[in-house]
Design a protein that fits this description.
The radius of gyration is 21 Å and the shape is globular. It has one domain: Up-down Bundle (Rhopdopsin 7-helix transmembrane proteins). It has 10 helices and 3 strands, in the order βααβαααβααααα. A 3-stranded mixed beta sheet has the order 2-1-3. The protein is mainly α and 303 residues long. α1 runs parallel beside α9, α2 packs antiparallel against α3 and α3 packs antiparallel against α5. It is found in: Cell membrane; Membrane. This is Olfactory receptor. It comes from Mus musculus. One of its GO terms (cellular component) is plasma membrane. Belongs to the G-protein coupled receptor 1 family.
């Protein structure tokens, strides 16, 4: 463990312009509240509804949970800093943010894979679906996702804690992540950067390839289905695939390249840290008649 003279960092955020900062405060506050409300609605609907008990909705529950937590690791700090003069984050808070962002980000990746597996079994092995995707299997898969996320974020935090800081403490980003932190470290970060690329980068790339292949298999299986069955399956899979592209595109861009930071990095990060958690509930509810029906029944009944 290195002796760090650094007790705090300054997060530059998305912009230095005071006018733009006010706009950022307003826009991201609204986006963040919408994210929380959207994901909370889905979680409560799934928990309270009798009809949404299938594995797909169990996984959707965890996706919404991961989304709400993932955006909470980055958005509130961005919103508060947009209005504050001193954009300070303590060393411990910064390390916590690295851990949490990677934990929930990785959780989201694993849950998306579970959802793809679920759709694959449902569409390609419909008769054995209930035996393959039974309650025990689902629980085990979710536990594996939790453990996998924990291992990934522990590896990230281990690398982050190894970094010695002795110079400037200004992070040119809106949240603490390994790339911007490595730029401040007073050591050669070549090896650590390789480890980051081989950890985060590999998880993103391999997961994306696995998902892509699973969707090709699903499409291949669909050719034997009836027109109505095809339409329904395609509607579900399209919404999954939109989410996968929106989430993995930016992640792969950020984590699978050598240590060069580009001006566009912050905007790309906004996509997967704040955009995806907001879009997921919209995509899954607007394209899913069962969720829409359950929500209407549950919430209109209450009101």
């Amino acid at each position: 463990m290195h002796n760090n003279s650094m007790t705090e960092f300054i997060l530059l955020g998305l912009t230095q312009d005071p006018e733009q900062q006010k706009a950022i405060f307003g826009v991201f506050l609204i986006l963040y509240l919408m994210t929380l409300i959207g994901n909370f609605l889905i979680m409560v609907t799934i928990k309270m509804s009798q009809t949404l008990g299938s594995p797909m909705y169990v996984f959707l529950f965890y996706l919404s949970f991961a989304d709400a937590c993932f955006s909470t690791t980055t958005a509130p700090r961005l919103i508060v800093n947009a209005l504050s003069q001193k954009k300070i984050i303590s060393y411990n808070e910064c390390m916590t943010q690295v851990f949490a962002a990677h934990f929930f980000g990785c959780m989201e990746i694993f849950v998306l894979i579970l959802m793809a597996i679920d759709r694959y079994v449902a569409i390609c092995k419909p008769l054995r679906y209930t035996t393959i995707m039974n309650q025990n299997i689902c629980d085990i898969l979710v536990i594996i996702a939790w453990i996998g996320s924990c291992i990934h974020s522990s590896a990230q935090i281990f690398l982050a804690l190894r970094l010695p800081f002795c110079g400037p403490n200004v992070i040119d980003h809106y949240f603490c992540d390994l790339q911007p932190l490595m730029k401040l470290a007073c050591m050669d970060t070549y090896v650590i950067n390789l480890l980051v690329v081989s950890n985060s980068g590999a998880i993103c790339m391999i997961s994306f390839i696995v998902l892509f292949i699973s969707y090709i298999f699903i499409l291949y299986c669909l050719r034997n289905h009836s027109a109505e069955g095809r339409r329904k399956a395609l509607s579900t899979c399209t919404s999954h695939f939109i989410v996968v592209v929106i989430f993995f595109g930016p992640c792969i861009f950020i984590y699978t390249r050598p240590l060069i930071t580009l001006p566009i990095d912050k905007m790309v990060s906004v996509f997967y840290t704040i955009g995806t958690p907001l879009l997921n509930p919209l995509i899954y509810t607007l394209r899913n008649s069962e969720v829409k029906y359950a929500m209407k029944k549950l919430w209109c009944g209450k009101v």
